[in-house]
Automatic annotation (TrEMBL):
Name by which UniProt lists this protein: Glycerophosphodiester phosphodiesterase
Source organism (scientific name): Flavimaribacter sediminis
Gene Ontology terms for molecular function: phosphoric diester hydrolase activity
InterPro entries, A to Z: GP_PDE_dom, PLC-like_Pdiesterase_TIM-brl
GO biological process: lipid metabolic process
SUPFAM superfamilies (alphabetical): PLC-like phosphodiesterases
Short name of any one Pfam family annotated for the protein: GDPD
Amino acid sequence: MSTLAWMTARPIAHRGLHDMNSCVWENTSTAFDRAIASGYNIECDLQITSDNMPVVFHDYKTDRLCNVEGVVKEMTAAELKKLTIGSSGEHPQTLKDMLRQVDDRTGLVIELKPQSDCLTTVFATAVLEDLNEYIGRVALMSFDANLILELIRLGSPWPVGLTAEAHSDYGLHLDEDILDSGVRFVSFHVADLPHTFVDHAKARGLPVITWTVRTEQQLELTYRHADQITFEGFDPDMQHSREQRASG
């Protein structure tokens, strides 16, 4: 059983080390390279296309990120890869593209975005197939209890985790039975801390990371109640360096 020590050892760059989509856009190869260069783990998102290809893309639709109307699950991977993400000049990647790029230069915390029930098995199976020959540090997670349970049922060799908040729209509602299903870690909404669900997860020995940390106060809240941050909008190492200089 693989260890998750890497996940809590270093902060996790939310959708890569982007600059809030000013010049470096979320979930792009540049954002991932910047995270690797800074020694941060990477959090990224997966959707599935009409030809059953996992793609690195957060939204269900393409308008916000690509300024083109479209629904990811209704497009082929080839169609999606022709689009440009914002002003970056970059194109959406497949999961396989991203794995080739990262090549175990850092750890990956990969979120599978909830899908319709008819896509649960297809999505989980496709992700595990793409990861089949990858040698590196990977953890998979989702808000969707059905996706979590399907990954576990399929015998995922990668640790599977729960993404959660105090008020979820995905039917989980912090049912602690999920912690007995084989879940290996929890990613929890930082604004909902402190919370008894997190306390119970930690009491079971499960690592807890938080999302999405954007302020010093949220960083401090995480380290009081959880194990590691998923962050964006600032550089934790630079923040720590400033604090050290101030205290010195």
